């Protein structure tokens, strides 16, 4: 490194954040990055120039943060996930920098509306569902709380498919989210690792000792793409490293030499296929070789990267767990541990026992699966073909493990069969979750009820063997994206009534709203904020579907992946029942009906026929009802296409009611209920996943719950199966009008058959009467505004526990044993912003970054952050144990 480089100052890249500097950076990027004329820049061009200007601010912090972690030799966590459902980044970055006012003013001066530029950005949809969104929320919390962390995943060229609805039917289109470039990533051609596949293993003698050598057949390069993840009002900025596949030059050269240019180029595109597309996180990818290669590609590159960084510390490899821990988001990255084991034994020459200790101390596993039948498994035939050496190691691990089982339960063949990492059915499989439990020091469920089911139903034998390994950490969501950014109206109101903006960093403060939930003026402002959000959603519905809905109606929302267990079908069956009931009413009776807009959004996996026909039914029902002049505004049904993060950000703040009605015992968590509660939406749910804890926090009388409890599900199922369950006549009536063709000629027979003849596995017919009853209670409650508003305020007040900050703190303290490492640096929050929040401190006129910074207010926020880590939680601890 030429040390004179240090003395060159870059005037245009100093981190100035005042309005004039922002304008200059923007114009700089228009002229030099985009090479366009100032007078000739469209909205997309303006978005890109703006995003680059924001990125410059982030890169500065991001480099400093990495350097700070390195210099201080802190222990770090690597978070491994096959999915990151990030959504958009521009607003998040600007808000986390505390600069929304300044950026808004600068854009206005240049003739743009900041919010319109936000809309230009494509969602980064590198995930399918809650699991991927969880990883994104966790990154935000880890950055905000200054934890030394790295995110690792894959840079898919095509994210979650783009959903279009034609004639009520779902069509899937490729989601090429990189079409307009991705200003948030930095391509790191300097960080590249070889990844090997296939080939054979041979036992060889090295220095007189037997040694297993792997001769792989394919080599593909993993190139790093880094995305800075800014924390909220902190200088710390983390890194999300996503790997992209690239053909390896030397491998191709061999083929060129053999004179076969075209098949060699064919291999090139083959290599790039590895990170081409995201597989949905459910059974539809089962057994796909490319998915297995994706998983190994991700973890091998990540492990090589962790080792490279660890080696810089010059410590012995046996110390690895003291500096690095690895958290696996579900069992998909489990091969990371096997890859590390392989490198320690085969490359570093460590003994099996020593190497095994290292991986056990470093790795931990979050399980997201509820039903045993959904646990991930890979055919051994495929594993042996793609990763022969890893398969050897898995056999070896299993051999040692089964000896332990045998010691604990002598001669218990049942235990050995159940617990073995290898499933010995006619086709043999590797059980990834069993493998993960064996090689990790900790395994956690994602809600209390889910963790209990893991102990008693999913992994009872493992729990008996290693009770100390099993933990429960309830998921959370980030209040920055889901409240502050998505719902500015309500956020400002909360700041005003709590008299501090620091709830965004300490969500437990929301509980103070409960005290004020009866105050008339708060209720009035609260419902006004909700109304503004409903108008915005109504505008979006009209723009998208050409349908007018009234913001005076109750907005009743169910948005999530479309799946039988999530029971959108129960919802639409009730809607049909509601429709036929209203139609049979006199005019007098109709006056008493609570008008509703029932809003759905969600994607079905492309090969999941029943889920797709549920989407068809919802759309067909909406056509009939919305065009029925006789019904008018009493009932509308809306299916918004292409559910994604940015759509959720519009819908959630506008919901009066949200539905989370999975059959009890089928949803591990369900994080969207947390987002809804934070936004003052009242919950209608079954006692499943997160709803159990939400209803405890919010108060059972303030949420609407119904339906079979998890412990009763098995007996109800058998009653249904044996035809012993008397089906509700209203339920049967709905099925017959569907059958009769009232909602189109589409063949709904498979759907109806999934409910009849003892096939109703998800217990729709069983829960239907209770569902109708609770819907009546909801209609009645909505008619009493102060009752409804109070429930709404209490929903927000009770949601403090569900901040992902709390989840991450538990992971850090209980599993990772890491501490925050805060790189100090200027935090830029404009004085206008703080005073608009009602935080009036002494303005000491400190000129940081060209604009006066309200130091007192910032210190106050910083103090709250300090409290966050110790003293404040003392008062909370008396209310509820965090299990710390
Ligand atoms: C939160 C979220 C999810 C998870 O929703 P659940 O209702 O918990 O299944 C899925 N997709 C998106 C886009 C989300 O924001």
Automatic annotation (TrEMBL):
GO BP terms, alphabetized: glycogen catabolic process
Cofactor(s) listed: pyridoxal 5'-phosphate
Family annotation (SUPFAM superfamilies): UDP-Glycosyltransferase/glycogen phosphorylase
PROSITE patterns per record: PHOSPHORYLASE (PS00102)
GO cellular component: cytoplasm
Keywords noted in UniProt: Carbohydrate metabolism, Glycosyltransferase, Pyridoxal phosphate, Transferase
Biased composition (Polar residues): 868-878
Known EC number: 2.4.1.1
GO molecular function: glycogen phosphorylase activity; pyridoxal phosphate binding
InterPro entries: Glycg_phsphrylas (IPR011833), Glyco_trans_35 (IPR000811), Pyridoxal_P_attach_site (IPR035090)
Source taxon at top rank: Eukaryota
Region Disordered, annotated ranges: 864-884
Reaction it catalyzes: [(1->4)-alpha-D-glucosyl](n) + phosphate = [(1->4)-alpha-D-glucosyl](n-1) + alpha-D-glucose 1-phosphate
Residue positions, PTM N6-(pyridoxal phosphate)lysine: 675
NCBIfam families hit by this protein: P_ylase (TIGR02093)
Summary of the function given for this chain in its UniProt record: Allosteric enzyme that catalyzes the rate-limiting step in glycogen catabolism, the phosphorolytic cleavage of glycogen to produce glucose-1-phosphate, and plays a central role in maintaining cellular and organismal glucose homeostasis.
Recorded family membership: Belongs to the glycogen phosphorylase family.
Name listed for the protein in its UniProt record: Alpha-1,4 glucan phosphorylase
Species name: Planoprotostelium fungivorum
